[in-house]
Amino acid sequence: MDENSFKTRPVKISVITATYNSGATIEDTLRSVLNQTYGNIEHIVIDGNSTDATMDIVRKYADLYRRRGLELKWISEPDKGIYDAMNKGISLACGDIVGLLNSDDFFTVPTVIEKVASVFSEKEGEIDAVYGDIHYVNPDKLDKSVRYYSSKGFTRERMRMGFMPAHPSFYCRRGIYKEYGLFDTSFKIAADFEQLLRLIYIHRIKTSYIPMDFVTMRTGGASSSGFSSHRRIYAEHRRAYKKNGVNSNFFLESIRYVYKIAEVCRANLQ
Predict the structure, then answer these.
(1) In this predicted model, what pLDDT tens digit does every residue of 25-61 receive, in sequence order?
(2) Under a CB-based contact definition with an 8 Å cutoff, are residues 11 and 40 in contact?
């Protein structure tokens, strides 16, 4: 049996967190990684030269990670935005599998990475990436969901409607990024969509859905901040389609918002 097979060794998971002046939230992020039940985790924090206490908090956790047998690495330097920071993290990663965890967010349950590793081990050679669900909360009420984003119904063809798997739940073989590229930093708000369009729709990587709530996300991020952001997202989606030669239109994209409204309504009824 191949000594590099996941059957003979534990899967190494790299988690990338991009930060900038995240002192108010980064501790929740770090603690949620530290509390994961899986042991073979490399957590890479890419900081954009924060001027608050972000890096003091990160350094404080270094010893706690060591005691748990986890790796915590960081760099702090100016960057060209969140997608540039994520690219740096992916380029530095040594794990078999790479995922992203924003500095405003945290893992919903302690078994997320254990489940990711288990599925990759069970389906070795059959899949390139996995994804699951996430939910959104108000920053001042972290225990109350305001929207549940399920990736269950995602299909490749739905990307023409602007759909994509919940990106904070997307864990991919590192080699896929080497083969098909990182984030296109010319996109300021939808580089995640363009990248997944490229990976899933164009290159048809093999994916698997995990029915699990991966991440709790605070509302108010760049892609969830009102009408102007949605207008920019639509413009960047159109550019992503054009760049990758994918046919879509305004009508197809508008269908996505019907689903978004339904998700919010369901969350408010719970």
Answers:
(1) 999 999 999 999 999 999 999 999 999 999 999 999 9
(2) yes
CA distance 137 to 145: 5
Dump pLDDT digits (tens) for 145-177.
999 999 999 999 999 999 999 999 999 999 999
Helix orientation angle between 250-269 and 227-244, rounded to the nearest 10 degrees: 130
Paired sense of beta strands 97-100 and 129-138, if any:
unpaired
Domain span holding position 198: 13-269
Residue 5 lies inside a defined structural domain of this protein: no
Instruction: Say if 163 falls within a structural domain.
Output: yes
CATH code for position 175: 3.90.550.10
**pTM value?**
0.90
Measured CA to CA, the distance from residue 38 to residue 46 in angstroms comes to 22
Q: Where are the alpha helices (DSSP H) in 72-226?
A: 82-92, 112-122, 174-180, 191-196
Question: Is 3 inside any structural domain?
Answer: no
Q: Are strands 141-149 and 171-173 parallel, antiparallel or unpaired?
A: unpaired
Residue whose token pair is 């919010």: 264
What value does the CA radius of gyration of the chain take, rounded to a whole number of Å? Answer: 18
Distance CA 191, CA 220 (A): 18
